[in-house]
Amino acid sequence: MPIPSFAGLELLDTPVLICDAAASLRFVNPACENLLALGSREMLRHSLLELFQPSSALQQALSTALQQGASYIEHDLELKPQHNDAVLHVALSITPIDMDAEGSLALIELRPLDQQLKIANEERLLLQHQANRELIRNLAHEIKNPLGGIRGAAQLLEHELSDRPELKEYTAVITEEALRLQALVDRLLAPHRSHSRGPINIHEVLERVRSIALAQHPQGLAVIRDYDTSLPLLSADKEQLIQVVLNIVNNAVQALRGQGRIVLRTRVARQTTLARKRHQLALKLQIIDNGPGVPDDIRDHIFYPLVTGRAEGTGLGLTLAQAFVHQHGGSIEFESRPGQTCFTVLLPLLTETTN
């Protein structure tokens, strides 16, 4: 049971802990339980310093605050909980409080910076996407008109060469390459065309993509389902979402060279900010592979058009995926290291409300 004099701290959204001079924990509030993904009973069995991997900065902050009897603040501190692999970026504040019966205690506030960084990064990606979209649209229109002229001229030239069949090979190359570029332009313009939306089950989308991937690579590729089947429907364009997932999965398959494991995972995300709006419920879709990871030289601009790590790639798959996700009011991001790459797509669910 929490100490009665600390009861009001349970209502705070800020994660709060209280410990004594020996770092033994006396109180943790529910917000702290959520932050560390650990129950209060389990946390109270440990000292403050035992909750995290050794951190000289945390130890010094606690010692300094209690010795000097004044608040100590760290604006950006990295903490690694002992019980999982998460890395927390927090603003730390330690304030001494005097308790007649308890002696000197320390009130510790941990304000997570990850959400602020995530929102700022989402804003940056949104602006980047808008700039990319305008650039692509203008470029595609500029390319599209001359292509029609090139193809038409090649066809006229082919008729003129009726008595020179050996030269028709060259006009055929011109026509075929013009058609290939036309298809590329159509793909560039695809995100700007209107599409119909309706209530869909995300797992139908994932099963479709899974079938395609396994049909193309029946040997050596494992596509594992990790679904939350209780998820409600979402309002979306089914074909666009199939394209989003298929583009990401195709990238994973190519990185794995058809030999490896891909996990399709669905979960619910609560109280999520997407496209500057707060959503009570959102779909969290993760596509995880055990490939070599995203090359360092393209990590910062992987969603840019025509950026690819493969000589035969077009560099449009993730650009189109990002465009479609943003059109649905969602976000897409990734984390990658050798042995694991995880793309996370967040989309508003149909049953939630925004404020």
Automatic annotation (TrEMBL):
User: What name does UniProt use for this protein?
Assistant: Sensory histidine kinase/phosphatase NtrB
- What is the organism of origin for this protein? Chromobacterium sphagni
Pfam families named among the record's database cross-references:
HATPase_c, HisKA, PAS
Q: What does this protein do?
A: Member of the two-component regulatory system NtrB/NtrC, which controls expression of the nitrogen-regulated (ntr) genes in response to nitrogen limitation. Under conditions of nitrogen limitation, NtrB autophosphorylates and transfers the phosphoryl group to NtrC. In the presence of nitrogen, acts as a phosphatase that dephosphorylates and inactivates NtrC.
Q: Name one GO molecular function term.
A: ATP binding
Which residue numbers delimit the Histidine kinase domain? 138-351
**Which superkingdom does the taxonomy of this entry point to?**
Bacteria
Gene3D superfamilies from the UniProt entry: 1.10.287.130, Histidine kinase-like ATPase, C-terminal domain, PAS domain
List each coiled-coil range.
none
**EC number annotated for this UniProt entry:** 2.7.13.3
Limits of the PAS domain? 9-56
Keywords from UniProt, A to Z, are: ATP-binding, Hydrolase, Kinase, Nitrogen fixation, Nucleotide-binding, Phosphoprotein, Transferase, Two-component regulatory system
A Gene Ontology biological process term: regulation of DNA-templated transcription
